[in-house]
Specification:
The protein is an all-alpha fold and 137 residues long. It has 2 domains: 2-58; 66-136. Helix content is 78%, strand content 0%.
Length: 137
């Protein structure tokens, strides 16, 4: 919901900036240059605020499961490495060691995903990981 609201705000900033610039230019004959310049400047600032996504600064992000997202990004990096090592293995330039090591790190990453899946912003992740390793020992 907030993502759609941020996008709408950015579109409104951009659209109102463009509209203000066009209106100022079209009414240029009836406005003095000292009145045109601040209006055009305001229009450009609104336009830039929309283009650069300034609504994200006004409405903060509310991601709750950042540890899970970080682990997801880690698994994507590991997928790239696994692909690279598999290609090297198939071409004969590498042996299986890098491929198997990457595969092992992927399994650890998937286990970590299970540990952090329900934990918000790392609050309970470390405590759960510590207790989980103690229970397995």
């Amino acid at each position: 919901m907030k993502r759609k609201l941020r996008r709408l705000i950015d579109i409104l900033f951009t659209g109102s900036g463009i509209a203000l610039i066009f209106i100022t230019v079209l009414l240029g004959a009836s406005l003095s240059i000292s009145a045109q310049m601040p209006l055009v400047l305001l229009g450009v600032l609104l336009l830039e605020a929309g283009v650069w996504g300034m609504s994200t600064k006004v409405l903060p992000e509310e991601r709750r499961f950042t540890d899970l997202r970080d682990e997801g990004e880690n698994i994507i990096d590991l997928m790239r490495e696994l692909n690279s090592s598999a290609l090297g293995r198939d071409e004969g330039s590498e042996d299986d060691s890098r491929f198997l090591a990457t595969l092992g790190r992927m399994h650890v990453s998937v286990d970590r995903m299970g540990d952090v899946a329900a934990h918000e912003n790392g609050k309970d992740a470390e405590a759960s990981s510590a207790s989980g390793t103690d229970e397995n020992a």
